[in-house]
UniProtKB/TrEMBL annotation:
The keyword Signal applies. Keywords: Signal. This is Peptidase M15. The keyword Nucleotide-binding does not apply. Coiled coil: none annotated.
Amino acid sequence: MPIKDTVKYLLFSACTILLTIVCACEKQDTADPSRKTPNIQTSNTVTQLQDQRLQHEFQLWKEQQNQQLLIEYQRYLAQHLQHPPSLFELSYNRHISNAQCTPYQFAIAPRHQWENVIKPLQLIERLQALGIIHHYKIVSVYRGAKANQCSRGATGSKHLSNHAVDFQLVASTSQNSNQPDTAVLQKICQFWKKEGRALKMGLGTYQHNKFHIDTSGYRTWGQNYKSASSLCLKR
């Protein structure tokens, strides 16, 4: 083979080998998703299994209750609210994460306390109607003594008498961090300062965009249940 042709052959062979190596590396990177993106499918599957387990536990609790009483409770709230929460939202205490406290994660208030939660729920509806809050999920409503202890609630918590509602903002840019959604927080605090005294509005401000609302007295507090820790009073 002439020298010129030999050189061309060697160059062609070298290029072919190099191209094969590059393609193999790219294929290996593509085949290993952990090197590029998290496994979203696995995460979604875990969440779905957790939701299914929770719904199963809710159904078991529900079957053990007085069915007529549950129906009457929902009807009572529907008479006073434009958008009454579901029975699941009213009964589930999201604060409970300890397995030993699982028996107390679902409960509704006794009949004589049903009226107590109407004003706090109406107040949340008003905040939403004014555009102060948008999407939220209820974290806790009524809590019995055991559930309140499991939730590390205050000794004199208004949840014990069905006077309070805890809720958390969702679809927020900072909902998964310790930092509050400052725009929404500012609006809620402004509302509390302007309207809170007349409404006897109690406002608790916590991390992860969680709030407590009751209508049992004009006051505010933060993570340690002291007024000094309220995010509404901090600069």
